[in-house]
């Protein structure tokens, strides 16, 4: 099982693309974790998210990848949700997308990424977006 978080950002999209690639290499299913804050999203944002998840599901089917999408609205944050799902599913790996940082920002990893790396019950694959994307 490969666990990856959904974020509507280029880093989130790269994380999902890399998770699907990793699923093909490992012949493993993928669980996408969608952390939703209490109160949910505006209808337009919810529709956009569903369109993106439908495209991801279509890509996964075309590559013969079993895909599960979990929308979690009762948890605290993205890091906690990813670690909890990885623990529950006995995941082989968590995939996360990282954003580029300034020279000073490189001294400090993002707090969610750092918490995932430290608390994960399995290896973490951290991917950066390609230049120009």
UniProtKB/TrEMBL annotation:
SUPFAM superfamilies named among the record's database cross-references: Adenine nucleotide alpha hydrolases-like
Q: Which InterPro entries match?
A: Rossmann-like_a/b/a_fold, Universal_stress_UspA, UspA
Top-level taxonomic group: Bacteria
Q: Where is the signal peptide?
A: none
Instruction: Outline the extent of the UspA domain.
Output: 2-128
Q: Which PANTHER family match?
A: STRESS RESPONSE PROTEIN NHAX, UNIVERSAL STRESS PROTEIN UP12
Q: Record's family? A: Belongs to the universal stress protein A family.
- Name of the protein described by the UniProt record: Universal stress protein
Q: Which organism is the protein's source? A: Populibacterium corticicola
Q: Tell me the organism's taxonomic lineage.
A: Bacteria, Bacillati, Actinomycetota, Actinomycetes, Micrococcales
């Amino acid at each position: 099982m490969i666990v990856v978080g959904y974020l509507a950002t280029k880093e989130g999209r790269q994380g999902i693309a890399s998770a699907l690639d990793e699923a093909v290499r490992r012949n493993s299913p993928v669980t996408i974790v969608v952390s939703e804050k209490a109160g949910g999203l505006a209808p337009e944002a919810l529709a956009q998210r569903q369109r993106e998840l439908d495209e991801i599901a279509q890509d996964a089917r075309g590559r013969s990848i079993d895909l599960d999408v979990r929308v979690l609205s009762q948890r605290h944050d993205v890091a906690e949700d990813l670690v909890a799902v990885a623990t529950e599913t006995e995941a082989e790996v968590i995939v996360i997308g990282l954003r580029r940082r300034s020279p000073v920002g490189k001294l400090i990893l993002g707090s969610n990424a750092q918490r995932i790396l430290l608390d994960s019950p399995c290896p973490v694959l951290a991917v950066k977006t390609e230049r120009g994307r």
